[in-house]
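Every protein is a chain of amino acids, and every chain bends into a shape of its own. The fold becomes a row of whole numbers, each drawn from a learned catalogue of backbone shapes. The protein below has been through that process, and both of its lines are reproduced in full.
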Amino acid sequence: MARVRCITEMGMGVDVHGKDATKAAKRAVSDAIRHSSLGFFRMLGKTANDMFVDVTIAVPNPEAVDIAAVAKELPYGTVKVNAVKGGLEIPAEQGTDSILIANAAVIVSFDEDKG
């Protein structure tokens, strides 16, 4: 069954100290969905749990992202998270600390009913 993309939201999250890619990723997802309240799916005879939510997280170190922890930021639907190389790391002037910035794309789709 084909899926129909209904919503695309973008967000940014930052971990100011600690270079925690998961913390920045969770904040990016929260930023992306913070101002959304999706109610249109009821017009389609769907529920919030019928949503497919595909999340792409871009950080300098994608292997450091706890995918399951990021997925828990989404309260409904079938969630799939993918971490890719991107984002930004800004080194501190002294020491080994950095600011780590994550970008998130959250895409919501539904199965297309043809009947």
